[in-house]
């Protein structure tokens, strides 16, 4: 006899699919709720204006890399079935008002994304969402458009929607409607972490591009040139850290060059008597939001002393300098006693002949002599006539030392002055009238004669 047929039993694995078809809550679970599996990446994306004329890009996921791309992802727990999802932008800080920026991409309209949930799966990823920013003069119109299209997830009243808007930061708001006895019913909205505009220095991702040196003395004070992405000079720090130790580099706001370069001095290490090199982390930090860059290695080296001996030179006295010269391997300078006397070549000259002026005479008569203030030569000192052809102060002809003169006369004269006048300065002189250099003569025949000339050579 055949046993009676048992009633058909539904396999447990098929129950969720049957509940999906009915739009029912999963057995053994609580109330449906929305969970964010992959947060949007906070930094690394640039908000784009509508006038830029190209796609606003795609919001990457928090764990997105160059090789593996991820996107914001949610999961609807304790529910399988038909539904609808909406993603919009709200302000970072509460009350979370509708943000004037808008989402653009596939299935986006009026500044938000909306699509039907797939009944076959509870996990939903958003791959084509971009953020398009508005200009400040269009801000009020954009907020009014959000209210007109019922894009106000937290129902913020009108009196709280005014005030300033942070145009460099937004949050994604995920809203899900699931099926129920009376149709679709909303689940509580869920907010993502803030997403910052990578173009704004106040919220951009910090990054160290290059440094001119990655090591320094354990006593600090080494000058470092650091290149980075855009930063704000009043909201940036250079941090050095190791296990149980942290310090900041020293610099002023004027040391931040055009937001992309910082010149600072390293802080001293915790152990000034370091015996071996120690590697620490060097990174940028923004005090306003505690955001830090990826660290780079910096090595503290043992102190090598004053390599240029600057401190030693400052403390030197005359005695220390003398001892330094004595220790010097360079040969000492020779003493003055051992040096031979210095010889100076002086030309020898015969002693000058006695010069006694005559009692009566003229300073030359129809003569012309040139000479120097010396002795010897042709003619007498104070002139004459005949063969001597006149006299002069020195020998006839050109003089070599002192000054020379040519004295002549055409008339009578008188004895030279006594005492003998000093030689004139080495300038061209003329005595008398109608001389070699010309010039008016005296009204009468003078003692020095007429037509005389004197020239210093």
From TrEMBL:
Q: Which GO terms describe its cellular component?
A: cytoplasm; NF-kappaB p50/p65 complex
Q: Where is this region: Disordered?
A: 322-423
Name the UniProt key words of this record, in alphabetical order: Cytoplasm, DNA-binding, Nucleus, Phosphoprotein, Transcription, Transcription regulation
By its UniProt entry, which SUPFAM superfamilies does this protein fall under?
A: E set domains (SSF81296), p53-like transcription factors (SSF49417)
For this protein, the record's InterPro entries field holds: Ig-like_fold, Ig_E-set, IPT_dom, IPT_NFkappaB, NFkB/Dor, p53-like_TF_DNA-bd_sf, RelA_RHD_N, RHD_CS
Q: Which PANTHER family would you find in this protein's record?
A: NUCLEAR FACTOR NF-KAPPA-B PROTEIN, TRANSCRIPTION FACTOR P65
**Main location class:** cytoplasm
Which source organism does the UniProt entry give?
Corvus moneduloides
Q: Name one GO molecular function term.
A: RNA polymerase II cis-regulatory region sequence-specific DNA binding
Q: What gene is behind this protein? A: RELA
Where does the record place it?
Cytoplasm; Nucleus
- Residue spans with biased composition (Pro residues)? 348-357
The record, for PROSITE patterns, names:
REL_1, REL_2
BP GO terms, sorted: canonical NF-kappaB signal transduction; cellular response to lipopolysaccharide; cellular response to stress; inflammatory response; innate immune response; non-canonical NF-kappaB signal transduction; positive regulation of transcription by RNA polymerase II; response to cytokine
Q: What is this protein called?
A: RELA proto-onco, NF-kB subunit
Composition bias of kind Gly residues appears in 367-414
Which sequence ranges form a coiled-coil region, renumbered to this chain? none
Q: Which domain of life is it from?
A: Eukaryota
């Amino acid at each position: 006899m055949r046993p009676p047929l048992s009633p058909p039993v539904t396999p447990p694995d098929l129950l969720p699919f049957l509940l999906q078809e009915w739009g029912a809550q999963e057995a053994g679970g609580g109330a449906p709720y929305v969970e964010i599996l992959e947060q949007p990446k906070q930094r690394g994306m640039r908000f784009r204006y509508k006038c830029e004329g190209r796609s606003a890009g795609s919001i990457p996921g928090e764990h997105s890399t160059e090789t593996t791309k991820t996107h914001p992802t949610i999961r609807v727990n304790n529910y399988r079935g038909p539904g609808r999802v909406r993603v919009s932008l709200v302000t970072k800080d509460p009350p979370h008002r509708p943000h004037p920026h808008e989402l653009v991409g596939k299935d986006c309209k009026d500044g938000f994304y909306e699509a039907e949930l797939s009944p076959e799966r509870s996990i939903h990823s958003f791959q084509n969402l971009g953020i398009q920013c508005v200009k400040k003069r269009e801000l009020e119109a954009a907020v009014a458009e959000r209210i007109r299209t019922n894009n106000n997830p937290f129902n913020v009243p009108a009196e709280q929607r005014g005030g300033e808007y942070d145009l460099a930061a937004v949050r994604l708001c995920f809203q899900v409607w699931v099926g129920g006895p009376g149709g679709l019913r909303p689940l509580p909205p869920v907010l993502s972490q803030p997403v910052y505009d990578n173009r704004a220095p106040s919220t951009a991702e910090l990054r160290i591009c290059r440094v001119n040196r990655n090591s320094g003395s354990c006593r600090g004070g080494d000058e470092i040139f650091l290149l980075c992405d855009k930063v704000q000079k009043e909201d940036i720090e250079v941090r050095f850290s190791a296990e149980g130790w942290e310090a900041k580099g020293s610099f002023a706001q004027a040391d931040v060059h055009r937001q992309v370069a910082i010149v600072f001095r390293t802080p001293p290490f915790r152990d000034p008597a370091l015996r071996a090199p120690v590697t620490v982390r060097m990174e940028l930090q923004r005090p306003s939001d505690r955001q830090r860059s990826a660290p780079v290695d910096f090595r503290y080296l043992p102190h090598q002393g004053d390599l240029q001996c600057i401190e030693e030179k400052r403390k030197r006295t005359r005695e220390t300098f003398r001892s330094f010269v004595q220790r010097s391997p360079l040969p000492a300078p020779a003493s003055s006693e051992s040096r031979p006397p210095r010889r100076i070549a002086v030309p020898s000259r015969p002693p000058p002949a006695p010069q006694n002026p005559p009692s009566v005479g003229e300073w030359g008569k129809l003569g012309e002599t040139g000479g120097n203030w010396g002795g010897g030569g042709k003619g007498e000192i104070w002139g004459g006539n005949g063969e001597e052809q006149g006299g002069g102060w020195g020998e006839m002809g050109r003089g070599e030392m002192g000054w020379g003169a040519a004295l002549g006369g055409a008339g009578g004269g008188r004895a030279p002055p006594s005492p003998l006048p000093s030689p004139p300065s080495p300038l061209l002189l003329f005595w008398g009238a109608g001389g070699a250099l010309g010039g008016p003569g005296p009204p009468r025949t003078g003692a020095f004669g007429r037509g005389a000339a004197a020239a210093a050579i």
